[in-house]
Here is the input.
Amino acid sequence: MSKKLFIETLGCAMNVRDSEHMIAELSALEGYELTDDASTADLILINTCSVREKPVHKLFSELGVFNKLKKSDAKIGVCGCTASHLGKEIIKRAPYVNFVLGARNVSKISDVLHRDKAVEIEIDYDESLFAFKDFRSSPYKAYINISIGCDKQCTFCIVPKTRGDEISIPADLIVAEAQKAVECGAKEVFLLGQNVNNYGRRFSGENDKMNFTELLRRVSRVEGLERIRFTSPHQLHMDDEFIEEFARNPKICKSMHMPLQSGSSEILKAMKRGYTKEWFLNRARKLRELVPDVSISTDIIVAFPGESDADFQDTLEVMEQVKFEQVFSFKYSPRPLTEAESFTNVVDSELGSFRLSTLQAYQDTILDSISAALLGKEMEVYFEELRSDGYIAGRSDNNIMVKVKGSEELLGKIARVKITETSRSVQYGEIIA
Ligand code: 5AD
Ligand code: SF4
Here is the structure.
């Protein structure tokens, strides 16, 4: 009988791909099969995120729950970013944990499995050329890593300390992965990196010089591939050439993530983001000019140390001007190993919560008018998910979530849909072709 693996994945798309890599390795080398019932598992993995404090606190209570419900001889492993930054501390606080595997050490999964109390969290470890076995959670889209790590030094962010320096993966390998995905039936690839449009800054071996724009051109030449998405780009590296390629290339999906963080140039300086409010607005304007139906999403942090009411107003003003289609907003959470952790000009927590809810209510009013304007519009939707309520869900080229009544024949197909009912987060429609 095969052994059973339960895996919980928190955090970002990088973590989703890391989990896929671990599942593939454990299945090919150790004979594991996935289960969604932790109580029957022989191995329980939590792939953690440490970008904010709350999920880190939750980790230990969750570990306690898993320890109680697991089979007596089952193993528990903690992987990902919290594993990287807490390391052996995790085994100290939860002695029943069998191993700790950092976000930069995913390829060692089958090794740590056989070394009780192993802690592998080497930050300089170069996995960029490691060939993982194959596993994809969706047959319709393929996540492909194009770089690992992050060279930026944003003062609020722990990620460079959990995922290490940035290393790009050679373009030939990326193109081969995209080809393989298409051969397996995927129409869409999702290129992943902490900072994708900084691609080509550093490779681990000899490589032709290549930037992200050129990489996009190369991937788009893969025959049979219809859609290319990527995350996360950085507006600092959105030069005209990149935006023009984004606009012109029909395979590149017209949705862009532009992580604003703050609309105040002063706060952006304290965050060491490398751009100003004006630069951000200039790039967003250029994008909207060249790609009229682009959807722009963003991340915003409120109550960063030193944020005044005027700084917060600057953030609202950028929201008003750009009219983001999607906003992920967070209250600042001090993180260990970051520069901002020692900043003393902290913003009162209640004021931070007030700003967060003000910002979210404001975004809701923007979303109401964006979604109302979608009524009657037609769009090409790639259907990927059968829901239990009789609907089938997919995304338009510009990342609008659309649901239609339908059955599994639609899965993996791109169809033209007319929007008949709108809401803030999902639109309903009918297939017209
Ligand atoms: N506090 C709050 N939010 C943070 N993020 C990153 N670090 C912090 C922090 N210390 C947010 C940023 C980032 C997103 C992934 O998480 O907005 O873009
Ligand atoms: Fe979380 Fe950042 Fe690590 Fe992704 S890279 S899992 S968002 S801390």
